[in-house]
Amino acid sequence: MPTGVHLRDVRQQLFDAADRVLLRDGPNGLTSRAVTDEAGCAKGVLHRHFTDFDAFLTDLVLDRAAQLDTQAATLRAAAGTDTVAANLTTALTTLFGPVPVAIIPLITFRDELRARLRHARPGGGMAILAEVTTAITGYLDDERALGRIAADADIDSLTLSLVGGGHLLFTDRDHIPTTEAVGKFVASVVSDVVRRRPA
User: Fold this and answer.
1) What are phi and psi of 184, to 5 degrees?
2) CB–CB of 143/84 below 8 Å?
3) Residues 6+ apart with CB under 8 A from 116
4) Among 53-62, 150-159, 170-179, which stretch is predicted with the lowest mean pLDDT?
5) Which CATH number is 1-49 given?
């Protein structure tokens, strides 16, 4: 591999290469060599920007988790529009996109990565799932404040059901659920707490 390849925004290019490797080969295929080969650069490039591969993975996860903030803001802005079930269906489909779902097992099976993420985000829960949980909770709180969800709704339990069930729906990369399947799941979770408007 040539060492003279010039990369602009090296970190972002390495992160994007890692995304492609994750999506193609899964967490087990994500190595420093695979990332630099995918980025078209020498292996030393990664180590000039990160102290080691776990430092690279930590920054990758934190970067991808931060990107979910934009999607969370979009969901919060949707409160009071369309239906609660439709908004949540769109949100789960977006928040559990291919890259976030591929990162979750990476975190689960790498002890050193989990330790570094805990250090970087004390009390923050498991990155990716923590962001999804925060997004769903905030949205449900907003809808409850607007009177579209029952005032006595248990938001924590609803969120746990939506995030846990949503994650299971999207876990199999080879069988992504249809929008209809996600919508049916969401409707079953929120049906008892959604306020029905008078006809």
Assistant:
1) -65, -45
2) yes
3) 54, 55, 58
4) 170-179
5) 1.10.10.60
